[in-house]
Amino acid sequence: MLRSAPRRFVDREPERGELVEQVSLARTQGEQGVFVLQGIGGVGKTALMLWCVRDLAPSFDLVLEISMGASAEAKTVEEILDVFLVQLEARVLPPTFDGKLAVYRAETARRDVLVVLDDVDSAESIEQLRPASPGGVVIATSRQRLEAFEFAEFTTVPLKELSEQHGIELLSQGLDPINDAEDERALAKIAKLTGCLPLALTIAGAQLRARRHDRPSALLARLESAQDFLAEFKVDHDRKLEFVYEASYQTLQPWEQMLYRRLGLFPGRQFPAWAASMLLGEGAPVSDTVLALSRATLVGQLADGRYEMHAIIHRHAQRHANEDEHPADVRKLCRGLAEAYLDFAAGRELVLSSRFHFGSRFDGSLAPAYAGEDSYRRAVADLETEMPNLRRVVSMAAEEGFADLTWELAEAVANFLFQRGRYADAVAVHLLGLAAARQVCQETGDVRPLVALHTELGKAYYSIHEHALAAEQFTSAAERIDQLGDAAAAVPVLAKTLVWQGLVHRRLEQYETAVEHLERSARLVADPAFPAGLRLREERLLDMNGAPILAEAGRVAEAIEAAERAAAHFGADADRANHAKSLANLGEVLSEADDERAEEVLRSALMLEKELGIVDFEAYTGELLGRLLKRTGRAEEGNVVLARAAELYELLADQRAEALRADLRD
Questions:
Q1: Concatenated DSSP letters for 500-555?
Q2: Strand order of the sheet with strand 137-142?
Q3: Structure confidence at residue 383 as a pLDDT band (50, 70, 90)
Q4: 13-158: CATH homologous superfamily?
Q5: Are 350 and 368 in contact, with CB atoms under 8 Å apart?
Q6: Which of 108, 174, 498, 571 could join 521 in a cystine, given CB atoms 3.0 to 4.6 angstroms apart?
């Protein structure tokens, strides 16, 4: 007997309508249609199939439906034929498989039959159970993503998890109307925790309906504090959600099980192929193993050699890692991941900048990740893609007590985070890095990590206009520099720290003090102890950062000369971010001097900043250009540019947005 379609069902209307239409079209054209709904366990394949069958059943002579159970308890095709032949009221039930198959084909040749197969694990099973009549159709579901389905020219329909909106709708069906903001937020968080997986949402919804006096926030609290997250998704004592993935796990081969559970140790749900290689180790059949997990829909393939695990599957894999991997192996794998990501980040930082670093990967032993004209763009793209994982890896390294790797990771990503205006990320990462640096210094006496992380945290605080905190960090860095004992390292680092202190004083409108810090820095750069190979770049950085300060101190001619030197230098340098900044600073001092070149330079800076995606630079340069245009009689054009700058400031949660909006209203 055909199962009823589930009462609680949301979304899927596009897939449902298209599938019904395709089935009707196939029958009109006299073709035998085979349609396979694919997706991870619990994504709602069976629910969608049953709704489609409900729509289609009246147009068929007979519907044959069965769950094949693609697991250790799967039904064989012969066992299914025994069931189907009874439903077909066959007069003969042969004892052999071939005989049963012949009778099945004869019986289905005489009428239009819709065959419904739930949880199929092979194309061969579908082929054997295809009805013989031209008007016969098969609709199947499968957790497998098999090439054989494509080879057989079946129509595959991939299903994804629900959107957050539809996830909340499914979760709240049957509940009393919710008018409390806290409960609305709780429902949204529950949907997010489940990755909007229909099975998990259906179970959670049933729990909420069964415990009507409990608020959604109570269920959320239970889920957030659960030691075994999947075990919370049960109906009475039946752990329905866990069973789905456990059944899939048990069908995997040893290599596949190993990679699956080790991916549970990976701190993010999206991962690159090289991370899978690292987790399996040298000599392992990585490509075949990842492909097997992809075919089993336990991982999904993304663009550019990346993969993804659903949040629920990741939790299941993580539980197996905790249960099946030795704690010493887990720690070793976590350290290996941290080291691999440090190499990844440092290799790309070497492309972005030639600035001085203390970390061990910057001693010349590691080559830049890319070379050539497109290297900057590729390095930035890699870091943008992997930054969520890099943040989690820093946290993981800190939690595991890998202090030596934590501070180096923080230093390796600092320049990228600063260039891209990701200051909240920078503060979070550098706080972890600084704590690790303190531990390293305590254990080894090495103050270099402290110098690096005080400086980077100071820059992050400076960027979010926390001037007192920034000054405190730069002061701490300067105090530690005296303990380095290595003039070749101490002098350039102190010179840079003085520049940052000068920039803080500029923000506080203490221009003379700011100039004094710049002049002290310049004397250090000219000192014979300063590394000769770094001197020219540091001089130009001083010019770039110092030019606006000189202009505000009334030394406009010096400011223009300094800004022009910086722009010329970085225009011929691989460091495109500093090229953009040097142009912006040149435009700023030219604007201060009412120099007619200011507009052209600012527009060039703005164009480069847009190209590089440096949002905070683009916002500030846009503000400078907009104000210049208004000052020179082009108010309408200036307001358009200022409005765009205000939008960018808002994206950055920068307080300058409101000031610009006020100017535009006036």
A1: HHHHHHHHTT-HHHHHHHHHHHHHHHHSTTS-HHHHHHHHHHHHHHHHHHHHHTT-
A2: 62-67, 113-118, 137-142, 33-38, 155-158
A3: very high
A4: P-loop containing nucleotide triphosphate hydrolases (3.40.50.300)
A5: yes
A6: 498
CA distance 536 to 558: 18
Q: What is the largest CA-CA distance in the chain?
A: 105
Q: How far is CA 340 from CA 94, 147, 187, 275, in A?
A: 61, 33, 38, 8
pLDDT at residue 2 in the model? 64
How many CA atoms are closer than 13 Å to the CA of 554, on its beta-carbon side?
2
CA distance 433 to 398: 8
Distance CA 391, CA 656 (A): 27
CA angle 546, 552, 558 (to 5 degrees): 55
Query: Which pLDDT score is estimated for 487?
Result: 67
Fill in the DSSP letter of residue 91.
S
Cα separation, 228 vs 549, in Å, equals 57
DSSP single-letter state for residue 326:
-
Question: 26-81 pLDDT, tens per residue?
Answer: 888 888 899 999 999 999 999 999 999 999 999 999 999 998 875 546 788 999 99
Q: Which residues contact residue 375 at a Cβ distance below 8 angstroms, ignoring those fewer than 6 apart?
A: 351, 368, 369, 574
Architecture in CATH of 242-325: Orthogonal Bundle (1.10)
Q: Assess whether the region 13-158 and the region 242-325 belong to the same CATH fold.
A: no
Return the CA Rg of the chain: 32
**Cα distance between the two ends of the chain:** 73
Among positive and negative, which fits the CA dihedral 280, 282, 286, 288? negative
Query: What are the domain boundaries of the chain?
Result: 13-158, 164-225, 242-325
Q: How far is CA 508 from CA 187, 309, 385, 466, 503, in A?
A: 45, 48, 36, 11, 9
Of 413, 418, 489, give the one whose Cα is nearest residue 447: 489
Of residues 2 and 578, the one with the higher pLDDT is 578
The whole-angstrom separation of Cα 299 and Cα 295 is 8
Structure tokens at 637: 């054009």
Give the burial class of 303: count Cβ atoms within 10 A of its Cβ; 0-12 exposed, 13-18 middle, 19 or more buried: exposed
Burial class (CB in 10 A: 0-12, 13-18, 19+), 169: middle
What are 137's strand-pairing partners?
Answer: 33, 114
User: If DSSP codes are grouped into helix, strand and coil, which group holds residue 282?
Assistant: coil
Q: Give Cα separations from 362 to 217, 246, 426, 525 (angstroms).
A: 49, 45, 20, 21
Q: What are the tokens at 548?
A: 């606006």
CA distance 240 to 193: 17
Name the pairing type of β-strands 155-158 and 270-272.
unpaired
φ/ψ (deg, to 5) at 320 = -65, -35
Task: Please state, rounded to an integer, the average pLDDT across all residues of the chain.
Answer: 91
Local structure of residue 482 (DSSP, 8 states) = T
- Distance between CA atoms of 84 and 441, rounded to whole angstroms? 74
